[in-house]
Structure formats: C-alpha cells, structure tokens
Amino acid sequence: MLPAAMPNLLVILDIDGTLIRSTRVDDGVIAAAWADLHGHAIDTNWSRYRTSTDRGIAREILGERLNRPSDDGAITQVEDAILGRYPADLRLEQMPGAQRLVSTLRALPGVGVAIASGSFPRTARLKLGASGLHVDQVPKAFSDAHDERAGVIEAATRLACAEHAIAAFAARVYVGDGVWDLAAARSLGIGFVGIGDGAAAERLRAAGATRVLPDFADLQRALDTIFTAALVREEAA
Length: 237
Ligand SMILES: [Mg+2]
Prior knowledge:
The chain is α/β, with parallel strands linked by helices. The chain is about 45% helix and about 15% strand. It has 2 domains: about 10-25 and about 90-230, HAD superfamily/HAD-like (Rossmann fold, 3-Layer(aba) Sandwich), CATH 3.40.50; about 25-85, no CATH class. The protein has helices spanning about 25-40, 55-65, 70-85, 100-105, 120-130, 150-165, 180-190, 200-205, 220-230; strands at about 10-15, 20, 95, 110-115, 140, 170-175, 190-195, 210-215. The strands form 2 sheets. It has a 6-stranded parallel beta sheet, with helices on both faces. Helix 7 (about 180-190) links the parallel strand 6 (about 170-175) and strand 7 (about 190-195). Helix 1 (about 25-40) crosses helix 3 (about 70-85). The longest helix has 16 residues, at about 25-40. It starts with 8 loop residues before the first strand and ends in a 7-residue tail after the last helix.
C-alpha cells in the first residue's frame, strides 16, 4: 500500500481533537479547575498562548499572568485539579476511523506509529481509556516530556526509534487538529496532516495547511494523504 519510493516513515498522532473528540470536555474541565484552584478565568483559546501543551500553558498562566511560582510542584497541583474535574463516568467518542487507521499503520512494514500529545500524561491516559481506543502498544509522549509541542514530538520520535531499534526514520508526519500542531511540524521540518471540518478546517487552511481531513472514516484517503504529506516537508511561513 506504501508508494514504492517511500522511505521508512513515522506517523505521529495528536490525541485531543485528532484521535478522540475531547476538546469541548477539556475546555470546560480545564477552565473549571483553574477557577477552583486560583480563582482565575482562563482564556481557552489555546492559540493565544506561546506554548501548546498543558504543562507549558500552565507555566505561562502561573508565571506570566498570575505572577505565582511555576515550578513542577505548582504545575502538578494544576494537573491534579484538572484530573479531579473530569466526570467519573467520562465517555469520549473516537474520531471516525481512528482505531482502524492506527491498526492499519502499525501493520504496515516500514511504518512506525507514535502518539505525541500536549495533554498532561494522567489526563491523556484517562481520556484514551474513556474513548476505548486501543493504543496500549503505541509509544506515547505527553507534556511532561517538554513544554513545547515540537519537543513532545521529538520525545515520541525517540520512543518510536527505540521500539523499532533504528537511529531515525527517513520521514515523519504529524497529524493534528490545531494551528499549533502545524507550527510544530514546520519548526521540525516534517510533514503535516490537519484534522478538522468546518471552521476548524478553515483555520488550519488559513494558517497554511494544505492537507486537511475531517476524520479518518475514509481509510484509503487518510493513508494516501499521510503518505503524500511524508514526501513534503512543512516549512516555516
Ligand atoms: Mg489536539
């Protein structure tokens, strides 16, 4: 199924808004946790922050907006508050075709799969569990690896290289739903596939994304789009 000229490829997937529909729940939970903990009404337009991970954003809010300590202990307190705000009976929808895409990619020779999420690790695992997505075997990196999304992608890449016992993948593609995901792919000079429909797709296209899918329901189209993106490096605008 891979084009003959395709070198070994690592497909790196975001979680929220990409593999599972969790962004609406997340926004409410995160805002409520900040209100509980610091009485602060946070801006949930994540594109307005410098960093694009839960940890980086928490550090920004604490240090720059609230002028409070932003050490690891203070950030763990934020993570605890957010984790405690998810309902006990949380159920999240998988993005159509997500499970089949992950399983298909993992079965292809020459292709690696990894997850790079900006979520806190404990909330990410909670959300994955609530979605029923089976990705136990997939190497995963979260915001505890790095405050910047690009740093999390690099951490996920190192885990995937270790899994496949190789020094590097010849090509990488990041699949994500945020304009910050495109920015991270550009900063690393790797391929990008955007996930979104309607206004979200328009935001990605306006930021310069040339490959945007609504979801993975059309498996062949998703694979073709990812493989094509692997042959093109995103460049800083
Ligand atoms: Mg996302």
